[in-house]
Amino acid sequence: MNVLNKSISNAADRPVKVLQYGEGNFLRGFVDYMIDVANEAGVFDGSVAIVKPIAFGSLDKFREQECQYTLSLRGRENGETKVVNRIITSVSDAVDAISEYDRYAAYAKCETLRFVVSNTTEAGIVFDETDEFDAAPPKTYPGKLTKFLYERFAAFGGDPDKGLIIIPCELIEDNGGSLKDCVMKFAALWKLPDEFNDWVRNACVFCSTLVDRIVTGYPKEEAAAMCEEFGYQDSLLDTGEIFALWVIESEKDVSKELPLDQAGLPVIFTDNQKPYRERKVRILNGAHTSFVLASYLAGNDYVKESMEDADIRAFMMHTVFDEIIPTLSLPEDECRAFANAVIERFENPFIRHALLSISLNSVSKWKSRCLPSLTGYIKRFGTLPKHLTFSLAALMCFYTGDEIRDGALIGHRNGEEYKIMDDEKVLAFFLENSGKSVKEFAQSYLSRRDFFGEDMTAYEGLADAVAADIEEIRRNGMRAAVRSLE
User: Fold this and answer.
1) I need a labelling partner for 17 at 20 to 30 A (CA). Which of 91, 140, 369, 407 fits?
2) Are 373 and 327 within 8 A, CB to CB?
3) pLDDT digits over 11-37, tens only?
């Protein structure tokens, strides 16, 4: 079979408008896909130059395939299982910032360049005072960006029209603000001129984003069959779910220059992404955290399997629609539509999402994802939300063990061991307390301010309700306890 390249994709020649730090699966299955769709729709007309920002890895496959690759989106949408395959032609170049520094740095002088996107992992947006301006390139991503911006500033004599719109996709809150702070710190550390600082503040726009799509990457076991179906070899083949959401927050409106929404793409431009982040964290992540531990102890191993379990599905539905959505700030119809999309994502037959992988660090996850819904429900209705309350008991039963081995607390399900992974102090607490009476156990856990940020025993009746749920689980088993809620 021939290798996928531009002779097969018939890629159009478009000006480089986007510099992308990161060549990984996510950006290729999310940002580059959206730009490709916008190009096809006739609303953008630009290409992406990918930058490999670290020494690890190789761009050989990109060069062999002239940066062309296939994206296969697979999942459920509007009640149907769908597979959508698309050759992505929006990437026109791939450059190694380290071994090809001069070619990378030349993009600072690119007349058509307008955007910078990145996904350098959560640890990528960091200020390191040992980073050096004279390095080629600086070692951190913010250091690289600062030097790149300075070279652009110098090349165009501080022209305000040559500022860039910077859109980080790293999974940290206020990623745009954090990145801008790092850039300004490097500018100060490296004693760059005040005129440059003013140019960054006034000519450049730093956006904060919320990104949402599971990108599963290269399908190793299926790739050969898929390429046979396509009729060409594709070593950059990427896969992901159909659902996507990109919320872009900025002080200045950038929607006219990046009109992805006009191509029918799920992109929201706003000056406040917090309600959307709240919705995502509390519905999608909160649903996961509230049901997966109960589902695992009820005998399931995967998310999709859980959704096919009538007892667990009913528990999840009541948690989301009856207890989480009523506490959110966005309109109810928008939240219900998002929740329905989340359920279809959980049902995706192409993704095997293990419950034990989701269970990692559940104590801190419960605090950030579920606690605001529980306290919001109490504040609004003056009573305890029984499913979210039960999720606390399920967590405590899941975290029950009498041995720490190889950094994990050892739990048991139907006589078989499983590993409970969390911070050392969390595991030490459950080792010491999970064997106590249900009342002592509940009182001890809920009073831990370091776990919850507050003393949860202050909520009237909560400790007793959690203790009663634990007693029910221990006496009759998780499945019977879940059924007793309905």
Assistant:
1) 140
2) yes
3) 999 999 999 999 999 999 999 999 999
Compute the chain's Rg from CA coordinates.
Answer: 25
Give the H/E segment covering residue 419: strand 416-420
Tokens standing for residue 195: 């005129």
Q: Which stretches of 219-267 are DSSP H helices?
A: 223-230
- Asked if residues 460 and 449 have their Cβ atoms less than 8 Å apart, the reply is no
Q: Are 132 and 138 in contact (CB under 8 A)?
A: yes
- Residue type for 446, please? L
Overall residue count recorded for the chain in this entry: 486
SS3 category, 73: strand
CB 421 within 8 A of CB 408: yes
Contact status, residue 28 vs residue 94, Cβ threshold 8 Å: no
Tokens 């992308």 sit at which residue?
20
The model's pLDDT over 32-84, given as tens digits with 9 standing for 90+, comes to 999 999 999 999 999 999 999 999 999 999 999 999 999 999 999 999 999 99
Q: Residues 444, 449, 451, 454: is their CA dihedral positive or negative?
A: positive
Report the run of H or E that residue 212 belongs to, with start and end. Answer: strand 208-212
89-111 average pLDDT score: 98
Q: Which residues pair with 81 in a beta bridge?
A: 76
User: Which runs of consecutive H residues, i.e. helices, occur in 42-116?
Assistant: 60-64, 101-105
Question: Does residue 174 surpass a pLDDT of 80?
Answer: yes
Decide if 294 contacts 303 (C-beta within 8 A): no
Residues in Cβ contact with 477 at an 8 Å cutoff, skipping those fewer than 6 apart: none
What is the pLDDT, as a whole number, of residue 273? 96
Categorize the per-residue pLDDT at 123 as very low, low, confident or very high, splitting at 50, 70 and 90: confident
Q: Do the Cβ atoms of 165 and 209 come closer than 8 Å? A: no
Distance of alpha carbon 1 from alpha carbon 227, whole angstroms: 9
Q: How confident is the model over 108-133, as a mean pLDDT? A: 94
Between the CA of residue 18 and those of 36, 166, 172, 257, 399, what are the distances in Å?
Answer: 12, 10, 22, 12, 46
**Type of residue at 269:** F
**Cα–Cα distance measured from residue 459 to residue 455, given in angstroms and rounded to the nearest whole number:** 8
